[in-house]
């Protein structure tokens, strides 16, 4: 998923804005050539104080540029703030606005950008200039973790732009943002006081987010189009509107080589993967589609990929799915000329023949819950992870994702499952220090005190990774230590895969992210596997979902790689291609309500 805080177009635009257009009126040169840089700035500002509005603005703009070149951004912003843009020509006002936005962005001060770029201050600008400023305001809204505000700005900019290519670029940005905004926020936006264009975009996003399968999304899009026949998104659709282009490029094969261990300790999970693949093929067969044949290639005990490739060539394999072993995957990536395309089931190092990759790492979940927390305005978080190597890895990913978006970790807990949770959570929330302060105060002040124990106040959310038993103890302890008002976001480790209202009631209020396979209505493949006696709602059931997706996604891999904005709604998440040919999985996120994931409760309600 694209980081909401960085849009490639806006970064390119910001660079161009600072170096592109110069004021049409040449500002006067500094007279005192013997003075240093500071004196030059001061001289410009003194001259500005004696000039009419327009030449004064030109002098202050020149001074601000000199200050910016020296890295004195704060002072440059003060100089620009003194310019009354309502009294100067539009072109000059535009230059002042652009430099203000660039400097405020460097200072990570989005509030200043929004204040300085208030549309009411720039009524006389051309439509194209207004569109450019709208793009800068959108970036500022994103820095304030308000993607809905950014979408509104981009919608206005798209309507002001006459160039179809530029309009398409705006539409792509709008849709990219809408895809990453949580459904409840999109739904709330549809109930606000919107104009025609805004309401159409929000309803389109809400309708498509509610539909999991490609066919359902296409039907929803058709229904939306009948209601919004004049909407810009229908006249100029954004890239990846429903996901993939069914009539677009596909990878067609007759024989798929599946590289998995057929014996040993990994044989059982490998068998589960194969069952998922076979279920996906059976569903396609029942739909009247031509399906490829699976050719099993045993990787048990192998540390060299060459024999597997030889077998694949001998048996006419046209695509390889697997292996799981990172060593074998990296050998494939390192080959200079790999004739057979590969969809690996684990991460790959870069190389001349780097394969496509689809895997179930916890990294996706860690990044998802950070993005969810950021999208809801939380930037100062506490990390709660197990005191184990895997917990440290998840915590490291969370920290990296958070800090890259301007957030920060204000406290951490590596909890000990054999320790006292009350004591550990108390230390995290700093409640013992609160009690200690009370004791000290009572020793000094002899009359009666009214005192209430308090928790720390520097955090606005909690990010957690915990297995079910630990999570059921941690959340009540957080409530006990006065953190019940802090939103908690968690990885899927706390959910066993099937609803259990009695055992999971203590998880109420936690929002977690998991596979659509477990949090949405069952697909045809899942129903088929369940009818065959497979436990699809379990930790191992996730491997069934991975097997299904490996079959469903392979025809679209070239399109996903080459067409930005395309995606496939899969069982393991919404699949899109990132750098390094890795399939990114956007997961489903939902809170626990009454001991049950809310998405499942809603699904049950809709079916009654």
TrEMBL record:
<keyword id="KW-0472">Membrane</keyword>
<protein>
    <submittedName>
        <fullName>Penicillin-binding protein activator</fullName>
    </submittedName>
</protein>
<feature type="signal peptide">
    <location>
        <begin position="1"/>
        <end position="22"/>
    </location>
</feature>
<dbReference type="Pfam" id="PF04348">
    <property type="entry name" value="LppC"/>
</dbReference>
<keyword id="KW-0732">Signal</keyword>
<dbReference type="InterPro" id="IPR007443">
    <property type="entry name" value="LpoA"/>
</dbReference>
